[in-house]
Design a protein that fits this description.
The complex is a heterodimer of chains A (265) and B (518).
Chain A (H helix, E strand, L loop, with lengths): L17 H7 L5 E3 L6 E5 L1 E3 L3 H14 L1 H4 L16 H5 L6 H7 L9 H19 L15 H11 L13 H4 L3 H9 L8 E4 L2 E8 L3 E5 L5 E5 L6 E4 L2 H7 L5 H12 L3
Antiparallel strand pairs in A: 1-3, 4-5, 4-8, 5-6, 6-7
Chain B lengths: L6 E2 L2 E2 L19 E2 L13 E6 L23 E3 L2 E6 L2 E6 L5 E6 L4 E3 L7 E3 L2 E5 L4 E6 L5 E6 L14 E3 L2 E5 L10 E6 L5 E6 L15 H5 L10 E3 L4 E5 L22 E5 L5 E5 L16 E7 L2 E9 L4 E6 L5 E6 L6 E4 L5 E3 L10 E3 L13 E3 L4 E15 L11 E16 L5 E6 L11 E3 L3 E5 L4 E5 L6 E6 L9 E5 L2 E8 L2 E7 L3
Parallel strand pairs in B: 3-33
Antiparallel strand pairs in B: 1-2, 4-39, 5-6, 6-7, 7-8, 10-11, 11-12, 12-13, 14-15, 15-16, 16-17, 18-19, 19-20, 20-21, 22-23, 23-24, 24-25, 26-27, 28-30, 29-30, 30-31, 31-32, 33-34, 34-35, 35-36, 37-38, 38-39
The chains are: A alpha+beta (265), B mainly beta (518).
Chain lengths: 265, 518
């Protein structure tokens, strides 16, 4: 259930937790999130991922841990998932992971504190990436349709209003990202106001609700009417036809047409 | 036909009276008030009584910043005092004037601050959940903290946003969070001490037949099913009714083949033991983030000439269900907006998802969109009309799969939304058909709750910042007030000194309207 939230971190405080220091032997950064607009997942005070340390940690992990815990630390039949591990999630700079490695059987007990610390950066990076993986990734390829079928669909269904050599000439140059092209084909943006006629007056629709309707007339005047049962209101929204088509398109139609539109360089 | 008026801990089973003592006003979740001083004959005399614009700038958010103020909670009114919230904040204000009586601020340790659904009140105590996973008990009179207890693990990226509810001496809490793969649950806490009494997880016990709806114990134990919305409750059956949220990973479902019980379920839970009595699953194996958490509304009716105790849900996936709330048997299942994601229904009457309309690497065109045909805002049911009212949406989006590996985690995909149109759907609980539909004229949809009253009024918000009253029998628009933002909570009503108040939240402001009889 949710939202796209904006998160900004204004302050990065250098903190050294006593337990983290005891475990790792160094003083490392822990982020204190400040200026939270919507907050963030998890605790405010957390380990700031140092990319260089995470890279070193990946090497340590690959050497000693990957066979059992898997390439992305998601676990195997041999060993648990470390992204979902409460111990790793609680850990700050090895204060939990370090003692656990010494305690658990069949684990590398003689890693240095620096190696453990680096590895926590790698694991925290995996966790943070997982927690954010709804948004930054893009679908790999939406150009899976059939070009000829897309052209045929376009010529039979779309040419009453559109033209490959007119309004849509070079559309894929204007919208070079194929995912954006797919979205814009399905859900075109409004480029002109809705035309409306109210009580015989025609103009651009400014606003309508159940109680009032406002138009901007050709003279530039904005007129508002109180809506009653007797007041005649007629709207002409060119996007309505596109909205109705959403009940008609198959996914194959969608992919074929996008493939064709992408060819209109 | 109705159950008798039964007063328990200040909250009645059905029909809200002069106060609004809990999230839904009563245990039934009908959000129907018996008050009728305000009615169709005098609605145009409704006037503004007061506004409250909480300013958390005066009360910094834990972590040093400030939170975006959106009032999503339903206020609670007891003994002339109104309690309202945003994350980390509770205000007690005079319900006649909106003047502050006290203001409680929680120093947060983190968590999403997307909203707080409100408080529960029992005798001299106010209960609230915090984004950083605490249930906090406050002194009713002055807002001083009595105790707090941890209800979830912030380190695992849980947080808390739901309004607690009080049943007998139990405080029932829910949890939120869908960033990582963690299981949802509800808990019961002793109202006096906060001590944990039981916890019910939204997954089966390993080894049970229901556990076979997951490919592995590990997938099941990390399978989500958050409890975002407060339960309803039948005191005679002593059963709590709630919906559970989406399975995890949210979009990429290939690592959790099966129906994924008890995510996306309507469940009946014994209030004293936390034991599951029955379940019904509106969205088996969901891959669209369609939490089935919409309030399960309780009412009584006749089916084939026999009186039945019933439950209705207008679910986020676009389907409407009426169930027997004793057994969970499905009585009615129908679409309340047109959808395109099912292949029919199974033997229990549960929709069968069409795999082709799951997320795809190149996209699948799906309706409803991720926001759903309904979201969390509460619906209303009028026993006078037999209609359930939903501020609904017909919306489209393209669902994309980002992670097609064997073991995705987190989300692994998402949708990109497109057109959306909003309307109030009045759903006949006897047939499942939409009796009337009131489309918002300007297009677009809004997440606004509903309130119906014995004054033959139906209140909600439209997508153009109006607070509106409709005729519950026909959907005709009767009255409106233009606010500074769209309605963002469930409206309430209460009566004080012979005057009937209507209170609604829109963005950062609470608006109180009043009809005075003298």
């Amino acid at each position: 259930m949710r939202r796209v939230a904006s998160v900004r971190f204004l302050t990065v405080a250098v903190q050294c937790w006593a337990r983290a220091r005891a475990a790792v032997g160094v003083c490392a950064r822990v982020v204190v999130g400040g200026g939270l607009v919507w907050g963030q997942a998890g605790p405010t005070v957390r380990q700031d991922v140092d990319p260089a340390a995470a890279l070193r940690g990946r090497a340590v992990y690959t050497q000693f841990c990957v066979n059992c815990h898997g390439a992305l630390a998601k676990g195997t039949e041999e060993a648990p998932d470390l992204i979902r591990s409460p111990l790793v999630l609680r850990d700050r700079l090895g204060n939990e992971l370090g003692p656990a490695l010494k305690r658990l059987p069949n684990h590398k007990r003689d890693l240095t504190n620096a190696q453990v610390g680096d590895m926590t950066h790698f694991l925290k990076e995996q966790i943070e990436n997982t927690a954010k993986n709804r948004n930054p990734v893009r679908p790999p390829n939406v150009l899976t349709g059939n070009l000829d079928a897309g052209r045929a669909y376009f010529n039979s269904k779309c040419t009453a209003c559109h033209s490959a050599t007119g309004d849509l000439a070079g559309v894929s140059r204007r919208i070079p990202d194929a995912v954006d092209l797919q979205q814009r084909f399905l859900f075109p943006r409004r480029t002109k106001p809705v035309q409306a006629t109210v009580a015989g007056v025609t103009g651009d629709l400014v606003r309508i609700d159940d109680f009032t309707v406002s138009l901007k007339t050709g003279a530039g005047e904005t007129r508002t009417w109180t809506r009653t049962d007797a007041l005649q209101v007629a709207l002409n929204d060119p996007l309505k036809a596109h909205q109705d088509l959403l009940d008609v398109y198959t996914d194959a139609d969608m992919h074929n047409v996008v493939r064709y539109l992408e060819s209109l360089k | 036909m109705r159950l008798s008026f039964l007063l328990l801990a200040g909250v009645a089973y059905a029909q809200v009276g002069a106060e609004w003592p809990s999230y839904n006003g009563d245990y039934s979740g009908q959000r129907y008030s018996a008050l009728n001083k305000l009615n169709q004959s005098n609605i145009h005399s409704l006037s503004l009584a007061w506004t409250l614009r909480p300013n958390p700038g005066r009360a910094p958010q834990g972590g040093g910043g400030t939170t975006a103020v959106t009032i999503k909670g339903t206020p609670v009114v007891v003994n002339g005092v109104l309690y309202t919230t945003i994350p980390d904040h509770v205000w007690a204000v005079d319900a006649r004037s909106g003047r502050e009586i006290w203001h409680f601020v929680w120093q947060s340790k983190g968590g999403w601050h997307i909203g707080n659904r409100g408080v529960a009140v029992l005798r001299d105590t106010v209960y609230v959940e915090t984004p950083d996973c605490f249930l906090v008990a406050l002194n009713l009179a002055d807002g001083k903290e009595k105790w707090h207890t941890e209800i979830c693990d912030l380190e695992q990226f849980y947080y808390a946003s739901v309004a607690p509810i009080v049943v007998k001496n139990h405080v029932i809490t829910g949890v939120s969070g869908d960033d990582l793969d963690i299981p949802g649950y509800i808990e019961s806490h002793d109202a006096a001490t906060g001590k944990l009494e039981w916890r019910w997880y939204a997954h089966p016990e390993p080894g049970t037949p229901e556990a076979k709806t997951w490919p592995s114990v590990e997938a099941m134990m990390h399978g989500g099913g958050m409890t975002w919305v407060p339960s309803t409750y039948d005191p005679q059956l002593n059963l709590l009714y709630l919906g559970t949220g989406n399975p995890q990973p949210v979009i990429a479902g290939q690592g959790r083949e099966g129906s994924n019980l008890y995510t996306e379920c309507i469940v009946a839970i014994d209030a004293d033991t936390g034991k599951l009595k029955w379940y019904f699953q509106p969205s088996p194996h969901d891959t669209h983030d369609w939490d089935a958490v919409q309030t399960p509304v309780l009412f009584d009716g006749e089916v084939n000439g026999r009186p039945r105790k019933l439950l209705a849900q207008a679910s986020r996936n676009g389907w409407f269900f009426v169930l027997d709330r004793v057994t969970g048997e499905r009585i009615i299942g129908s679409e309340y907006v047109k959808t395109n994601w099912t292949l029919g229904v199974d033997a229990k009457g549960q929709p069968i998802p069409n795999p082709a309309k799951g997320p795809q690497l190149d996209g699948a065109l799906v309706t409803p969109n991720q926001g759903g045909a309904m979201n969390w805002p509460p619906p209303s049911y009028s026993p006078e009309t037999g209609l359930l009212y939903a501020n609904a949406a017909r919306a489209w989006s393209v669902y994309y799969l980002y992670d097609d590996g064997d073991k995705p985690e987190g989300w692994g995909g998402n949708d990109r939304s497109g057109f959306s149109e909003g309307m109030v759907q009045a759903i006949d609980t006897k047939t499942g058909q939409v009796r009337w539909s009131h489309k918002w004229p300007g297009g677009g949809s809004v997440r606004a709750g509903m309130l119906s009253t014995a004054g033959k009024l139906l209140f909600t918000g439209d997508p153009t910042q109006n607070f509106v009253a409709l005729d519950p029998a026909t959907g005709k628009a009767l009255w409106h007030a233009g606010l500074h933002g769209n309605v963002t909570n469930g409206p309430i009503t209460y009566e004080l000194d012979g005057a009937q108040y209507i209170v609604v939240g829109a963005g950062d402001t609470l608006y109180a309207f009043v009809i005075r009889m003298n």
